[in-house]
Amino acid sequence: MSSHQIGLERLTMDQISRIIAEKTLLQLSDAAIAKIEQCRSYLDEKLARHEGPVYGINTGFGYLQNVEIESEKLSQLQHNLLLSHACGTGEEVAPEIVKLMLLLKIQSLSYGHSAIALATVSRLLDFYNHDILPVIYTQGSLGASGDLAPLAHLALPLIGEGIVWYQGEKIAVSNLYEKLGWEPLKLQSKEGLALINGTQFMSAYGVFCLLKSSALMNWADAIAAMSIDGFDCRIDPFETFSHVIRPHAGQLHTAASISKWLSGSELISRPGKQTQDPYSFRCVPQVHGASKDSINYIRSVFETEINSVTDNPNVFPEEDRIISAGNFHGQPLALTLDFLCIALAELGSISERRTFQLISGQRGLPPFLVKNAGLNSGLMITQYTAASIASENKQLCTPASVDSIVSSNGQEDHVSMGANAATKCLRVVNNLERILAIELLTAAQALDLRKPLRSSEAIAALHADYRGFVSFNEADRLLAVDIAASVVFLRTKEGLLKTKEA
Fold first, then answer.
1. In this predicted model, what pLDDT tens digit does every residue of 311-326 receive, in sequence order?
2. Phi/psi-derived region of residue 316, left when phi > 0, alpha when psi is between -120 and 50, beta in every other case
3. Crossing angle between the packed helical segments 74-85 and 148-155, to the nearest 10 degrees
4. 317 within 8 A of 38, measured Cβ to Cβ
5. Which one is catalytic: 55, 128, 166, 466?
């Protein structure tokens, strides 16, 4: 099995995608080990000769910053910190996101500005490599002092507390350690704070949403192309001339993508068409393209974040400085997660409109894309479902980042609410997937009803693959099954889509 060395190079979204897909193991590079050990040694030596309070190292936390802690109690201080801050509630975080949290926490700690012990990072690596995934909850973070509650749950197993998923079952950490012959760690000064300060909950959600968004953007183009032919649209809006005079990168990319999917289609090239098509077809390059450009910007923000140190205080051994600042504040992520919700919701909004047009009984297609309409309702209610989900996405686009609630007795008086932005963003991503699955269901039905006229070879091949999951709708049947199968198709055939686009 391949391995990825933390600390050798900048971590990118593409690397993370490969690490996940290939089930790559993690290792610390020699450079990362040296930085971690240097920083820990510096802090130990500093505390041995320093008198007076240093925030979070020999003091209480937040509003309790002015309470000094005796040196012999510093380990207990860090232990107590994890226990007291593990206040999560709500639904459990998906295991794949928990695993991303581990990866991103290890990455952040590897820079040697957190004074974490090497043994602690090594144990986090063991969790990642052995799929020991702490049970974490979706609610509890304000996204400002980092993701305190979720990260406390992530770190609890280090000290022998909490519950984890291991080999397909939930198990108490005490029982897991007995099974593996491990001992709980005794945290040193600063370590608990290094573990729970940080943005890895928000970041992991954002990375997961962005990786899934990349696939859904490709699907949005492919399915739109199928709908364009299914609705007997014109090719003119996708020709290069109109786009080079308004050269937004996403618009240019989308027009080229749609044109490539439709190349060689009998349907798109036949004469006698209407002079214009509705905006949901004609403006695909402009709408899809704007979302693509937005997502590329959001991706750049997250790639900066996952290669950053986001705990507090920050330790600088070479400068002999320990600085209490605010790198844990999630504002950059909160704003962009809200932006990502909007960009994805718009892809769903225009998709639902194409579904609406396809079932409307226009342009030679039967009402609701079914024979014997009246006796059969056909795909009528699929549009209801898509409309309901699209509307929910609009509601979820209310920004979390404009909200703030004072906490810690006023010490933490402005918070990002980035964690709420993160969890609702995942709901938007999953909703978009369902909306596109419904459009695919209707577009495929429309193409079958256009026979013997054929679409392009690329679309015909995609259509044939889809028909292996969902058959042509001859008469009314249980459509929830078809929608679920369409979602499965989108998830399992992503590689096929990339091959066709290449």
1. 999 999 999 999 999 9
2. beta
3. 120
4. yes
5. 55
- Counting Cβ atoms within 10 Å, is residue 456 exposed (0-12), middle (13-18) or buried (19+)? buried
Q: Cα–Cα distances in Å, from 408 out to 82, 347, 412, 501?
A: 16, 40, 6, 52
Give the sign of the dihedral formed by CA 271, CA 277, CA 280, CA 284.
positive
Strand ranges, E, within 202-250: none
Give the end-to-end CA distance of the chain in Å, rounded to a whole number: 28
- Distance, in Å, from the CA atom of 24 to the CA atom of 8, rounded to the nearest integer, reads 15
- For the whole model, what pTM was predicted? 0.94
Transcribe 55-91 into DSSP letters.
Answer: TTTSB--GGGTT-B--GGGHHHHHHHHHHHH---EEE
Verify whether residue 55 is a known catalytic residue.
yes
Q: In this predicted model, what pLDDT tens digit does every residue of 439-498 receive, in sequence order? A: 999 999 999 999 999 999 999 999 999 999 999 999 999 999 999 999 999 999 876 665
- The tokens for 117 are 């012990």
Contact criterion met (CB below 8 Å) for 311 and 106: no
Mark 423-441 as b/e (b = at least 16 C-beta within 10 Å).
bbbbebbebbbbbbbbbbb
